[in-house]
Give the backbone structure.
Amino acid sequence: MQRQKRVLAIHDISCFGRCSLTVALPIISAAGIETTVLPTAVLSTHTGGFTGFTYRDLTQDILPVVNHWHGLGLEFDAIYTGFLGSFEQINIVSTIFDMLKKEGVLVVVDPVMADYGKLYSIFPPNFPDGMRKLCRQADVIVPNLTEAALLLDEPYHDGPHTREEIEHILRSLASLGPKYVVVTGVSYDGIQLGSASYDTNTGEFSYTSETRIEPMYHGTGDVFASALVAALLDGRTLAAANAIAVQFTVASIARTKEAATDNRFGVNFEAGLASLNSLIAEYKV
Ligand code: PXL
């Protein structure tokens, strides 16, 4: 049997609403990967569409936790980070990358900060500068199109996009440093919605899409990135991991739509967990 992989997931815990650690931990674990968690904050809910949420900041605990692990000689096959609450947290995560990144460690950054053309209102206008710095240290980045525009300091427009525009975005993001780039929320025709990837090792561009489902559901970016991390660590190519993550996410959205759940409550990814391993196995070459 293959040696069990170990991922470090650095995100907040939004107690209710199915995003960040409450999504990353179950999805990556279901793929048979040991998942170590490093909570950066505890919120009563995520910040999308809820008001009055609580926020317990854990910034001061992050480095002492990592220092303890360092003393124990713990090593990770991947580090996966998403929503971060401040520049200070970005700087701390950057230090953690320096501490833990050795040959063969996959650093995955989902630069969670914006959607639909707008930076989330909780962040200052220069927040993309901090996320750009973190993306430069990453092997894999997973922005949506709004985050991609902010990282590149280029104008954003609603889709549909042309293939040339998307290839330009992917190549420009790769020039920041990551060898794998995935951009989510891509439509070439306004009907199909999916995700485009670029593997700088092979030069391969790929695109996987499904029929768009309205409305938008919160937490889908985290479901997508978590499934992508699981598939990559299980040895799939970037193009295969992208296809797996699209299928897993779209199936979760379809179940949620069927159940007419409040779109702030996240998506029903739980019903897909038992078959995640067989979905990943389908793409084995
Ligand atoms: O889904 C990303 C995310 C994670 N954590 C918190 C958030 C969001 C998105 O809004 O608010 C706290």
